[in-house]
Amino acid sequence: MNSTGALKHWVWTPRGALPKDALSLWMLRKPSQNYSFRGPDGFSPQSDLVLDGRNLYGTTFDGGLGHGEFPGGTAFKLEFSNGQWTERVLHSFDGPPLDGTFVMSGVALRRDATGLHIFGMTQRGGPGECVLGCGVLYEITRQVRSAP
Question: How far apart are CA 58 and CA 53, in angstroms?
Fold first, then answer.
């Protein structure tokens, strides 16, 4: 209902429900390209992104600089500064038997006194008896820097 008491018409879109009058504006907006993966920093991002302040965290299914037979993707951070996005690879997965591979999940974040903890899962990898491993749950910790 709007401020005059009239009912608004809602339309379902891929971004959720929008008032009908906002739909035309939404359809005219073109997406902007904020960052392009190059391969060594990962490729085939398939997970949702997590926003933490001005940073985005996510994963790629493949690519990275892993040293295993199956480079298994990356966990990354995109930092917005000076009007542009800069990527930092937090981890390149090496694949089985010691590391995960084929990262399909997004990440969960937790902050505490020791730093930022980034949790996620891989589809394959690890020492399990499955072909290419049975998958791993991982944690990446970004330590809090203490003042000198």
Answer: 14
